[in-house]
C-alpha cells in the first residue's frame, strides 16, 4: 500500500457517504488531500514544503491541473500566487476563496491544502450540478504563508495587496544565506515581477478562507465547523544578545559578559508579561541559536525569536514595547549588547457582523449550532481583510494538533466544511 493509498484509505474509512451531495464529492476531496500529501513527504509521516521551494511549486502545478479540469482560467502572478477564475453571468467584482500549500518542516496534511481543495470543490460542485454563478469566482493559492523559510510569512497575500515593502524583502534571508531576490529568481520570477503582483483589490468583493481550527474548541463542543469572528495579528521579532566569549574555567563569575545569562533572564521575564496587557495576549520564544555553542565557552552571542499575538492591536503593541524594554534592561543588567528587530507585523482582523451572521446562518442550515471562534494563528485572510471584506470558517482539528504529522481532520468534517462554504458563497453570489 502506497502512502497516498494509506491516507486515502484512512480518510474514507467510516466516511458518511450521504454528505457527498449537491456536487460535492468526499472521495475527490480525499484523493486530492492524499495526492498533495506525497509532495515533500517526510520519513516521519509529515510534509515539508517551504515557501518558494520546488515542493511548493510542484504542489501548485498539481492544483493548477485540477483548476483547469474544473473549467477555470488559471494564471500565476509574479509572487507565485495562483488564481483560477470562473467568470460569472454578470460583470463585476469577484468572490475569492482559497489558502496555501506550503508547510512548516514536517508539518501536517490539512493546514492550507484543505482550504485550497475546499475552494476548488465549490467550483467542481457547480460544474457537476450546472450551477452558473452570478458573480465571478476565484480560487487562490497564496505563496509562502507559513514563513518558515525566511522567518516572516504571508508573502503572497502581502504582495497581492501591495503590503510587501522593499525593506521587508531586503530583510528576508533563508537559513542557507540566500536573499529573497535570489530565491525568487530560482523559483522562476524576479523582484520586479513580485512588485507587479500588486492587484487592484477593488476587483474583489469578498474573500473567505476555510482552514482547520488548530485548536480544540470545536472538538470539545462536538462541532464540525465554526465561524471565525476575529484573527489575532502577529508581531515577530529577532532579538540578539551579544557579550564576550571566554574560557568557562578561567573567567570569574563577576567578570563575565555572558549573553546566555542575559537571554535566559529575558526569556523568563517574557513569560509573565502577556497577562499584564490582555487576556488574549500571548508571547512565545520558539527559536534560539547560541554562538560559538561550545561546552566550555562562555556564549558570546545568542539569537532568538519572539512571536507576539493578540486579537486587539493596542494591547498587543503595548506588549511588544514592554518586551523590547525587557530585552534592553536584561542587556544593561548583564553588560551585553542588545538588538531587537521586527520581521513581521500584521494588524488583527475582526470579521464584520453581517458576514459573521451569514456564516452562522450557513452553519445552522446544516443542522449545527453555530459556534463563534477566535483565531490565535495568523492567516492570509487577515492580510486580504485589510483591503476587502473577509470571512473565515474553521473545521474541527482532532486534539488541536497542527504543524505536526499527527494533524488530522475527519473527512466527514472536511466535507461538512465544504458544504457550509459552498452555501455561504452562493448566498453572497445572490447579494446585490
Automatic annotation (TrEMBL):
Keyword field contains Hydrolase: yes
Domain Peptidase M20 dimerisation: 233-331
Keyword list, A-Z: Hydrolase
InterPro entries for this protein: Amidase_Cbmase, Bact_exopeptidase_dim_dom, Peptidase_M20, Peptidase_M20_dimer
Origin superkingdom: Bacteria
A molecular function (GO) term: hydrolase activity
Keyword NADP applies: no
Pfam families, sorted: M20_dimer, Peptidase_M20
Family: Belongs to the peptidase M20 family.
Species this chain originates from: Sporosarcina gallistercoris
Protein's UniProt name: Zn-dependent hydrolase
Amino acid at each position: 500500500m502506497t502512502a497516498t493509498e494509506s491516507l486515502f484509505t484512512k480518510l474514507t474509512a467510516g466516511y458518511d457517504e450521504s454528505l457527498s451531495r449537491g456536487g460535492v464529492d468526499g472521495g475527490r476531496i480525499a484523493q486530492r488531500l492524499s495526492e498533495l500529501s506525497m509532495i515533500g513527504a517526510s520519513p516521519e509521516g509529515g510534509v515539508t514544503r517551504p515557501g518558494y521551494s520546488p515542493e511548493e511549486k510542484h504542489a501548485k502545478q498539481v492544483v493548477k491541473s485540477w483548476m483547469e479540469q474544473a473549467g477555470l482560467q488559471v494564471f500565476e502572478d509574479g509572487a507565485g500566487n495562483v488564481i483560477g477564475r470562473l467568470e460569472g453571468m454578470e460583470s463585476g467584482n469577484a468572490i475569492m476563496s482559497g489558502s496555501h500549500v506550503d508547510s512548516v518542516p514536517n508539518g501536517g496534511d490539512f493546514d492550507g491544502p484543505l482550504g485550497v481543495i475546499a475552494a476548488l470543490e465549490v467550483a467542481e460542485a457547480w460544474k457537476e450540478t450546472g450551477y452558473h454563478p452570478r458573480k465571478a469566482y476565484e480560487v487562490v493559492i497564496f505563496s509562502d504563508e507559513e514563513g518558515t523559510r525566511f522567518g516572516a510569512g504571508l508573502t503572497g497575500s502581502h504582495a497581492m495587496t501591495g503590503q510587501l515593502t522593499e525593506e521587508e524583502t531586503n530583510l528576508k534571508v533563508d537559513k542557507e544565506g540566500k536573499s529573497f531576490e535570489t530565491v525568487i529568481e530560482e523559483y522562476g520570477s524576479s523582484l520586479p515581477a513580485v512588485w507587479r503582483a500588486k492587484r487592484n483589490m477593488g476587483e474583489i468583493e469578498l474573500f473567505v478562507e476555510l482552514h482547520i481550527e488548530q485548536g480544540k474548541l470545536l472538538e470539545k463542543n462536538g462541532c464540525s465547523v465554526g465561524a471565525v469572528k476575529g484573527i489575532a495579528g502577529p508581531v515577530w521579532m529577532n532579538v540578539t544578545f551579544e557579550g564576550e566569549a571566554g574560557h568557562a574555567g578561567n573567567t570569574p563569575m563577576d567578570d563575565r559578559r555572558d549573553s546566555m545569562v542575559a537571554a535566559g533572564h529575558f526569556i523568563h521575564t517574557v513569560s509573565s508579561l502577556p497577562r499584564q496587557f490582555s487576556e488574549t495576549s500571548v508571547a512565545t520564544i520558539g527559536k534560539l541559536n547560541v554562538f560559538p555553542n561550545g561546552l566550555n565557552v562562555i556564549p558570546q552571542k545568542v539569537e532568538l525569536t519572539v512571536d507576539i499575538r493578540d486579537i486587539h492591536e493596542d494591547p498587543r503593541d503595548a506588549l511588544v514595547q514592554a518586551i523590547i524594554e525587557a530585552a534592553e534592561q536584561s542587556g544593561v543588567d548583564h553588560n551585553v549588547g542588545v538588538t531587537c528587530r521586527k520581521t513581521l507585523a500584521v494588524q488583527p482582523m475582526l470579521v464584520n457582523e453581517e458576514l459573521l451572521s451569514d456564516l452562522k446562518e450557513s452553519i445552522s442550515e446544516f443542522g449545527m449550532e453555530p459556534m463563534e471562534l477566535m483565531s490565535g494563528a495568523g492567516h492570509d485572510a487577515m492580510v486580504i481583510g485589510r483591503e476587502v471584506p473577509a470571512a473565515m470558517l474553521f473545521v474541527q482539528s482532532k486534539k488541536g494538533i497542527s504543524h505536526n504529522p499527527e494533524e488530522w481532520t475527519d473527512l466527514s468534517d472536511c466535507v461538512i466544511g465544504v458544504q457550509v462554504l459552498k452555501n455561504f458563497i452562493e448566498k453572497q453570489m445572490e447579494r446585490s
